[in-house]
Amino acid sequence: MRALLAFPFACIVSGVLSFPLEIYVNDFLEPSFLLDAKFANDTIFAQQSIIQWAGELANQGPWSVLTSKPDGFNAPSGDPHDYLSWAPYWWPDCSNVGNKTELTPQQIWTTCPYHQRDGQFNPDRLLVNNTGAFQALADAVYYNVLAWRLNGSSTYSSNAVKFIRTWFLDPETRMNPNLNYAQVIRGPGSRYGAHTGVLDLKCMAKIATGILALRQANSPDWTGEIDAQMTNWTADYINWLQTSPIALGEGWAANNHGSFYFVQLSSLYLIINDTNGAKNVTQWFFEHQYLGQISANGDQPLEAERTHPYHYRGYNLAAIMTNARIAYYSGLTDVWNRTASSGAGIQQALDYAIAQPAGEEPVLEIHPYVAGVGAIYGDPEGKYAAFIKSQNENYPEEPYFLWTQPLSDSGFALGHTTTVSNSSSSSSSSSSPLKSASRATARFENLPAVLYALACAIACALL
Ligand SMILES: *[C@@H]1O[C@H](CO)[C@@H](O)[C@H](O)[C@H]1NC(C)=O
Ligand SMILES: *[C@@H]1O[C@H](CO)[C@@H](O)[C@H](O)[C@H]1NC(C)=O
Ligand SMILES: *[C@@H]1O[C@H](CO)[C@@H](O)[C@H](O)[C@H]1NC(C)=O
Ligand SMILES: *[C@@H]1O[C@H](CO)[C@@H](O)[C@H](O)[C@H]1NC(C)=O
Ligand SMILES: *[C@@H]1O[C@H](CO)[C@@H](O)[C@H](O)[C@H]1NC(C)=O
Ligand SMILES: *[C@@H]1O[C@H](CO)[C@@H](O)[C@H](O)[C@H]1NC(C)=O
Ligand SMILES: *[C@@H]1O[C@H](CO)[C@@H](O)[C@H](O)[C@H]1NC(C)=O
Ligand SMILES: *[C@@H]1O[C@H](CO)[C@@H](O)[C@H](O)[C@H]1NC(C)=O
Ligand SMILES: *[C@@H]1O[C@H](CO)[C@@H](O)[C@H](O)[C@H]1NC(C)=O
Prior knowledge:
Layout: H1 31-36, H2 44-60, E1 90-92, H3 105-111, E2 114-116, H4 130-151, H5 154-169, H6 204-216, H7 224-243, H8 245-252, H9 256-271, H10 275-287, H11 301-304, H12 309-330, H13 346-355, H14 367-377, H15 383-391, H16 400-403, H17 432-444, H18 449-461
Helix pairs in contact: 2-4, 4-5, 4-6, 6-9, 7-8, 7-9, 8-9, 9-10, 9-12, 10-12, 12-13, 13-14, 14-15
């Protein structure tokens, strides 16, 4: 492997920051972006956050489908290696099966008939938490590989590889390569999951980001044996995604479910090193679902009709843009200029989405994609930067600010001129960036924390 980087910021030190961990809906980063590691000097605050998030997430791992289910409780197949999650809006009626309070949770799950209450989440749905575990795994891999490129320590790359092995490969803990039991409706009898449950693994794009960088940098942690095993697992899972009636139902969905199906499938093709396969799959998306998703005025009617339109417009944009990033990487270089049948494209959809009133819905979730549009299409008047700043004045501390360049930092770093340094600066400033970032973080904490909680809850749960 090449000598570990010219560290862009040798002055980064580890420390205790309190910048809160968030969940971005999805993203994909090209390996060359991570391998070149040439980052703008005012992204240093984002870099610090990335390293902090990587450490926080790593402390929670590893994860597997076995350890994120209650002891001894399995999918209807009885196989502990099968992924399991529950349909979120379904509630038990135990009136005809004895006294509810004398039943264990597991007995309730398997003996009481369940009924749908539209829009009402059953709070116990995450007691079987394979969904949360996969989400955390995907973020842990993504941020640990990023931190490895920023900091150079193989602690981070070995973290990422260990987490991948535990979830997918190690015989004791591996997940079977199917989602036959995602979003199962609970109750008596053996059941299969729903096609909507395929969404649970949409963040495979973050894992593909990590694997491609590890592979192309020839990380000693990512051995040929591990690569071959992961390719094997992924080929089996691709076969399931392209042949199972459950999965195909998701592939036909016209709305964000269909968009994320192609994000996931193209990510898997990248993991098996089949770039043409990834290109075909994303091209398919842009020549099918995408055509019907954006109206001439930029609205996304299939998302706008949902109960949380501000969230869903941003959510589907996250899927479209992740598809576009993968498509571009795979050789579909005109993808950012492609339009839906209406003539409107990604930028119009973003412009429309952020012009709508958010009401009670969280506003920060869409920011990585506003920043992405600003970086990709340009932001000469600074309108995207200004929009983000109006809702989060410390946005250059957000990890996404690293990979949505060029984008103005709205003068943020200038307020920290004594502390921001470039790659050739001496290490004499080594402790100051941390201090200034801490000051900024203190302001950041004044943002309503509830917005983050809401954004995360909705990003994780609304399906
Ligand atoms: C990388 O992180 C380690 C552990 O926190 C730290 O000791 C080291 O100084 C960092 N290296 C760089 C180049 O920032
Ligand atoms: C159900 O069980 C609880 C606790 O064992 C008891 O307090 C309650 O009276 C019982 N209810 C009925 C309807 O049997
Ligand atoms: C599910 O797992 C995630 C990731 O580990 C965790 O943050 C969350 O608190 C868990 N939820 C429950 C209900 O245990
Ligand atoms: C890949 O899977 C095949 C059969 O499914 C098996 O024979 C082979 O040993 C596996 N290869 C690796 C590297 O695990
Ligand atoms: C991936 O594919 C490229 C081009 O098709 C090839 O050069 C490279 O060796 C492959 N890498 C692996 C790990 O198979
Ligand atoms: C391209 O992708 C589509 C959608 O998944 C699939 O139906 C088709 O078979 C693929 N074509 C090739 C040549 O792989
Ligand atoms: C869109 O197409 C124009 C004309 O070919 C090109 O100059 C521009 O860079 C493209 N935009 C993006 C974002 O790819
Ligand atoms: C970043 O570097 C550029 C020159 O490359 C300089 O003009 C700018 O002032 C620097 N920003 C900070 C915050 O140091
Ligand atoms: C980086 O910092 C060094 C030393 O402070 C300075 O000489 C150099 O011009 C700077 N480079 C850039 C690109 O800002």
